[in-house]
Amino acid sequence: MELKVMKIKVLGRGTSGVVHLVKIIAPVYNQIYVVKFVNEGRGEVYNMFLEYAPGGCLLDMMNKYGGKIQERDVNCYTQMILEGLLDVHEKGFIHSDLEPGNILAFPPQHGTYLPTLNIADFRLAKQQGVKDTRFGFRGTRYYMSHESVVGEVSDGLDIWSLGCILVEMITGRSPWDTHDRDDLRDKLLRGKSPNILEDMSKLGKSFLRECFTINPNKRWNASKLLCHPYLLLSEHMLPKDNQQSLPYFQQQKVLESQNIPPLLGFNIPNKI
């Protein structure tokens, strides 16, 4: 079978540090609910090939659903993302930029009608225990935690981001009520967190409170959150609305194409 490759972007120019990062995190790409690392190529540039996501990203899904997703589906998606984070953290890494655009959608698996979500884009990933000396935002501002602003890096950063994503999936809006960078930074430095949703299930609110605990040392990790009662709820125990769970992949015209490239290619120059 002829290999088809779609080149997406150059991740860095004239720096060996970025290339080194890709080499380190390569094992992460073969974990469950993490986009798969397929192959690599060396030459004038370093080529990193990842599996192609025919469903786009979580943000595309939210737009398809009209901006938000009903809670019973959010419950399942949250579990998928947490499973992926657990694998990443157990490998000794922190994603550092978890947001809807970095979570890719694949066809349903494991007997469910819902798309399978895989974590992607590890360009800002760091090894656990490595301090970030920069003072400021690391990643996408609306999903950043208090400690990320002051340069502290721990796996709790990803958990906070997950909570922000959960809020956005349910409301269809940014987890924060401000679009001003300095205002958001000030809120984070003062220990503020996104508002807990009033119309969310009681256990859902409890889950979010654990994600938004200000002290990262007291914030629940992925392993503990996977055992939270919220993720054990059956469908009939969650709030109901008039929105139907759409068979997302049956609506994707991209699947009708016979020329879908199965891989994503990332180019990283080798030369300094």
From TrEMBL:
Enumerate the spans annotated as Protein kinase domain.
Answer: 1-231
List, alphabetically, the InterPro entries matched.
Kinase-like_dom_sf, Plant_MAPKKK, Prot_kinase_dom, Protein_kinase_ATP_BS
Q: What are the BP-aspect GO terms?
A: signal transduction
One of the entry's Gene Ontology molecular-function terms is: protein kinase activity
| Entry-linked Gene3D superfamilies | Transferase(Phosphotransferase) domain 1
Q: Do you know which Pfam families this protein is assigned to?
A: Pkinase
User: Which residues, if any, are the signal sequence?
Assistant: none
Q: Which residues bind ATP?
A: K36
- Which key words are in the record? ATP-binding, Nucleotide-binding
Q: What is this protein called?
A: Protein kinase domain-containing protein
